[in-house]
Amino acid sequence: MEVRGINHVTIRVSNLRRSLEFYIDILGAKLVHKGNTDVYLDMGGTWLCLLEFKNAKPMDKEHICIDHFAFTVTEDHFPDAVKELIKHKVNITRGPIERGGGKSINFTDPDGNELEFFTGTLYQRMKNWK
């Protein structure tokens, strides 16, 4: 078997309209398709699907689940990305900090899903991991 990478990420959301505003207006995702309860977005070549569950409740940190996922941003663009998050009063959970061979900032979407902007690579992180 030869896996070539992650094909897409599907995120459960409680309010599709609110989430679309966040992912498109704040994070800069491009709308590819909008259905009744789902949307497909392109975010720098990463395919995201937002899937609406109106009565969904956030899981607490004690559940087994995906902790977060990170988007690559360039070192040059990182300060502007941080400014955009602050300008839109996005909930920042950690950073901005230098960590693991790059700059990092963690934040949540409107449903509390944790996301990260990171400037480094896997190999930079492994050189700097302690």
From TrEMBL:
Pfam families, sorted: Glyoxalase
Coiled-coil residue spans: none
Domain (VOC): residue spans on this chain: 5-120
Record's keyword terms, sorted: Metal-binding
Superkingdom field: Bacteria
InterPro entries reported for this sequence: Fosfomycin_Res_Enzymes, Glyas_Bleomycin-R_OHBP_Dase, Glyas_Fos-R_dOase_dom, VOC_core
UniProt-recorded name of the protein: VOC family protein
Origin species: Fictibacillus barbaricus
